[in-house]
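Take a record.
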Amino acid sequence: MRGILGSAAAVALDQLGIAGSFDAMYGTSAGGLTVAYLAAGQIAYGTSIYYQNLAGHTHFIDPWRLSGPMDVGFLFDQWITKGKALDTDAVIASPVRIGVATTDAADGAARVFDNRELTGPEFVAALRASASMPLFSNNREIIRGREYNDGFLAAALPVDAALADGCTHMLVLPTSTPETRDAVGLVERIYALFRMGDYSPAFRDAFARRAVLYNAIVDRLYGPGYGIPTLIVAPRDPATVPSNRETDPDVLVAAAEASLRRMERVFDAAPGSTKLYFAPEGLVAYPDGKPGT
């Protein structure tokens, strides 16, 4: 749910006329959905899924659901492919490279899929794999004979993918404050033993190392950098950063608005020149979890 910060920032890029400046865009987990909807010309529409269709009920997030606290199927089956469907044809046809980071379930290695190598259904499967967290959802996506899961493990911020592709300038949109670093607590380690018994040892090792890899990338970004001009637009006020488990639509809208204003300041645009989209159904998600007829 914290991914709304990056998604709203992308709304600003689109509405300020900057989105067409990129040769390639890369995303992990919620960031994968952000770059996909941006490439499809649907970013304001896609961003509204957070505060109109995921928040307000327990279909997507229910911490007491033993089968999986996060229902990735609800997100994708009800919204990404139906209710507010991503135009995958537009994504596949885009001249911009759209890279989505996943983790190979067999060897724990990062695998960045892009729109130039996949069909529409395969690209959706890559998005779904990237957004699936083994602690909170059980699904593993099969793409061309191999299983993939959580992109965060091996490529939380896919900076390396951009560098490997020869990018000469980077715009990075983190969803945490510059001071934030990841840590794995004892409760999470115990829960991981319960949830991840059927994953490969290599994948479990990648899971155990994920915080170290993430923190190293963040330290480098805010420290010596990666040797190319880089603009990092990150939230500075922790009060504007929602929890990943946030389900209050008002909190999510406020966070998205703060992200819009931040982008306006960075790009010297008039305050209020960017705005969120609200679909006709309003702020309340469908109570039965279905997008209607």
Summary: The chain has eleven helices and seven strands.
